[in-house]
Amino acid sequence: GIGGNRRSKDGITDNSVNVLAVRDISKTVRAILVNYSLHPTYLHAENLYVTADYPGAMRRYFHYAAPEAVFMFAQGTSGDQSSRYFRTGQNFEEAVRAGTTIACEAFRVLQNICYTSDPELKLKSVTMKNLPMKVFPDEQTAYAAKLKAEEAFEKSKNADYITMRNAELAMF
Questions:
Q1: Beta strands in the chain (DSSP E)
Q2: For strand 4-5 and strand 81-82, is the pairing parallel, antiparallel, or unpaired?
Q3: Distance CA 38, CA 89 (A)
Q4: Which range (11-20, 84-93, 101-110, 112-121) has the least confidence?
Q5: C-alpha R_g of the chain
Q6: Does pTM surpass 0.90?
Q7: What are the residues facing 73 on neighbouring strands?
Q8: In sequence order, which residues have a C-beta less than 8 Å from that of residue 125 and are 6 or more positions away?
Q9: What is the Cα–Cα distance from 94 to 41, expressed in whole angstroms?
Q10: 45 close to 3: Cβ distance less than 8 angstroms
């Protein structure tokens, strides 16, 4: 409920929260790696601060939930994964809400991890063939589309948040 497809609310989404943890012989968790597919863009371009966005809230959560552990975050395959349709704003409160939501799920996963002293690491690779190439318009058509998108974006500034952000995406 915090992220999904940035182009369509019902589009393809990766909601998996992947967790890898390491514990010592006394069963104290010493390292936690959380992987989640979502752009950390709760704070938008208007934000002038250097922040950790929602992964920072996750780190804060684990600072208290597993204080002996080093927390790490790896952004998953986030090409079209965004908070656009699932947030109420682009501010620190929303970043904290998202990070805490993911961290709570990661902590639940952490409680159910099966630890082993003899881990087997595997790698899977798939070669993609014959992928369709993107067709780019000629310069004149592209320029006309650019002007149209800029005009639509200007008009959208008085519209609702989602309409404005989608017009901005089209302009980009």
A1: 4-5, 18-23, 29-36, 70-75, 81-82
A2: antiparallel
A3: 16
A4: 84-93
A5: 20
A6: no
A7: 34
A8: none
A9: 10
A10: no
Smallest Cα–Cα separation from 32: which of 82, 102, 88, 133? 102
For residues 107 and 26, what is the distance between their CA atoms, to the nearest angstrom? 19
In contact, 159 and 152? CB cutoff 8 Å: no
List, for residues 120-164, the tens digit of each pLDDT value: 889 999 998 888 888 999 999 999 999 999 999 999 989 987 888
Dist CA 6 CA 2 (whole Å): 12
Give the closest residue to 103 by CA, choosing from 43, 59, 40. Answer: 59
Within 10 angstroms of residue 61's Cβ, the number of other Cβ atoms is 21
C-alpha to C-alpha distance for 163 and 155, rounded to whole angstroms: 10
Q: What are phi and psi of 134, to 5 degrees?
A: -70, 135
Residue type, 56: G
